[in-house]
Amino acid sequence: MAADIVVKNIGYLATAQGTQAVGGEKQNELLTLHNAFIAILDGDIIEVGEGEAREELLDEYTAEIDAEGRLVTAGLVDCHTHLTFGGWRENELKKKLLGVSYMDILKEGGGILSTVTETRRMDEQELYLRAEGFLNEMVAHGTTSLEAKSGYGLDLETELKQLRVNRMLAEQTEIDIASTYLGAHAVPLSFLSDKAGYIRYIIDVVLPQVAEQGLADFCDVFCEQGVFDAEDARRILSEAKRLGMGAKIHSDEIFDIGGTAVAEELLAVSADHLTATTEEGIMRLKHSGTIATLLPCTSFYLDKAYAKARDFIKNGVPVAIGSDFNPGSSPNLNLQLAMNLGCLRLKMTPYEVLTAVTLNAAAAIGMADRIGTIERGKQADLVLWDVQNPNELMYRYGTNRVDTVIKKGKVIV
Ligand code: NIG
Ligand code: FE
Predict the structure, then answer these.
(1) Residue 94: which residues within 8 A CB-CB, separation 6 or more?
(2) Is the Cβ atom of 298 under 6 angstroms away from ligand 1?
(3) 255 CB-side CA count, 13 A
(4) DSSP 8-state assignment for residue 302
(5) 303: Cβ contacts below 8 Å, ≥ 6 apart
(6) How remote is the CA of residue 181 from the centroid of ligand 2, in Å?
(7) Mind listing the pLDDT tens digit for each residue in 54-65?
(8) 119 lines ligand 1 (CB under 6 A)
(9) Minimal CB count within 10 Å: which of 112, 126, 148, 367?
(10) DSSP character for 55?
(11) Rounded to the nearest whole angstrom, what is the distance from the C-alpha of residue 39 to the centroid of ligand 2?
């Protein structure tokens, strides 16, 4: 069968392999090919190899893309984003500089709650156009699939509005999007002294609607001191699982209050942040096969500790890296910066980082069977980089290194 596109003259092809997250030494083992080609048919990869593409792969209709010796990787997967929200929070910058903490800003009714006000105010179309703008920026930086959370509505109407925006984006763009319901992101002002009431509202009112309308693949909880405790997370995520959603948890971002135990118990697909995780927490994640999603841009932006990535890797827990794009703790949607920090602050190797933002990130959003690697049978989601090799990609920083982005076999950047 002839290909409809062949990407040729790939100087350095680097890809993880398989359809499952990899940890330990495997996270550092990539397939690398030189002077390589990728043949694509109907949006899928039909062959990958070194040298020239075989004659049978070419006919007069085959389009050729000349990579001119560039590095080619699988499209990046941003497995933790808060894509859909109203407003920004640049007014918090001054407070931050004066030393007011992230949690204190939230306690004063700022932080997440001020974004909730802005998100409620925006109608669905406005919210869609904004999120679409962010998504296009992400794609321009090499992201070809992503996860998008709700969590800036907190009431039924706005949470569903955010999730519908996610669904519309998935339907109207080429990008694969996993949608996550994060109603337990903060306790809304209307339930201020009644957290238990808000949890009942999530379980009795919102979750059933989210499930019935098929709006979320995952459910997530911000499990943190002063927000939702481990028992709250357990109740919400158990119910979400019963309704068919996968479990995710914002765990140990500031304090370890038992989020990893919940992740273990409920076989969470991922536990995210993990900056305060102990050895015991790491063993729990290993036990449940939960992916550790690390978010170094957030540590950078809040000027906080970085997750101990080497300890996760040493113990065989697969590490993914996301941008955590959100208006408060990480107003950055360029996953390349997270990759730089993955090397420079998490002390991961360039190959480990590449696995973290491709195969492991794909597994963290339940899509590793079709994206995350460059292999026959997978979707042709590729980035041609304006560098020669993975070292150079992780070493350069601050400017966009993308040359060409291919999604499902179509050049989109
Ligand atoms: O992942 N920590 C909780 N949620 C987000 C921040 C959200 C916000 O500040 O708006 C995070 O860092
Ligand atoms: Fe987050």
Answers:
(1) none
(2) yes
(3) 9
(4) H
(5) none
(6) 12
(7) 999 999 999 999
(8) no
(9) 126
(10) G
(11) 37
